[in-house]
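Good morning N.,

You mentioned wanting to compare the apo and holo forms, so I went ahead and generated the holo version with heme C. This is what I fed in:
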Amino acid sequence: MKIHRPTSLLVLSILLLADDEAGKIMRPADKSSHKSGTVDIVATAPSGKLELDGKPLEVAQPFPNVFHGEMKVAPGAHSLVLKWEGGRKEVRFFSGPNAPAEFTAFQQHPPIAGIECTQCHELTARARFRFKGGCFDCHKTDGFEKVHTHPSGMLEECGMCHNAHGSTVKAHLLHTKETACKLCHQ
Ligand code: HEC
Ligand code: HEC
Ligand code: HEC
Ligand code: HEC
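and this is what came out, ligand included:
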């Protein structure tokens, strides 16, 4: 059989891209430190499996294919791996005090105890887990336009630019402001 290389490579890279997007570790953030020794995990992948330092980790799935659990982790550096068919993600984090310089303090969001996932998420009629909004139950809309250059209706996919589960960087930004604006502005 004759294979057109460029085509098969293109198809392969599209498949790989699709796979790479299928699994996500929303928290903890990569290279984050957790002084209290308690780490809250949020992740998703189709039929995914989690491993802590190479050993299988049982974490509850409150929604289909969505992992969530809070746990005490022994002091020191750790690796959390999410595996699914055709993909893998890894984050490294530090538990306990005196984290080495390569780790930055994790700021969980919202920084309020007892906020449910359903503050911002819902299951659709077809059991798809999705973001529904809910940020402005706590944040003021006035002032949004000044910071964002656009009214909130135009930037309603907050997850384009923010990790709403927490992060190690200012304003929980996923990219620099410049890159974030370039998502739409060439
Ligand atoms: C303050 C609002 C907020 C809360 C609370 C919240 N999330 Fe999210 N979550 C988001 C946003 C925003 C996104 C990005 C949505 C997007 O890009 O489509 C997201 C994305 C996700 C994703 C990735 C979905 C995907 O397929 O890309 C998962 C999984 C997830 N959240 C799980 C949880 C779990 C579990 C909880 C509760 C422990 C939770 N979230 C609490 C706002 C929140
Ligand atoms: C295009 C990227 C982008 C999107 C989409 C986006 N933001 Fe932002 N957001 C930013 C940037 C950039 C900052 C400024 C960070 C800084 O202070 O340098 C910011 C700052 C914030 C802040 C801190 C504001 C302050 O007063 O300092 C909040 C709260 C916030 N965003 C909420 C939201 C909410 C809620 C949504 C969805 C409705 C959203 N953002 C969508 C890029 C975005
Ligand atoms: C249950 C209340 C609550 C909800 C819902 C909520 N936040 Fe927050 N958020 C807070 C609090 C409290 C803070 C810390 C105080 C502050 O900076 O305003 C904060 C901080 C932030 C910051 C960091 C501000 C900074 O200057 O570092 C961003 C960005 C942010 N939230 C975005 C969002 C986005 C996006 C959503 C929806 C996906 C959301 N928040 C939903 C309560 C909430
Ligand atoms: C979700 C896509 C999207 C994102 C992200 C986005 N913009 Fe825009 N922006 C638009 C669209 C569409 C227009 C043109 C429509 C309008 O003027 O309302 C526009 C118009 C503008 C304009 C008016 C001037 C012009 O070129 O027409 C400015 C200034 C601007 N954006 C700045 C920003 C900045 C700064 C950011 C990052 C904080 C950003 N935008 C992020 C979609 C986006």
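The helical segments are 5-22, 144-148, 177-182.

Happy to go through it together on a call whenever suits you.

Best,
F.
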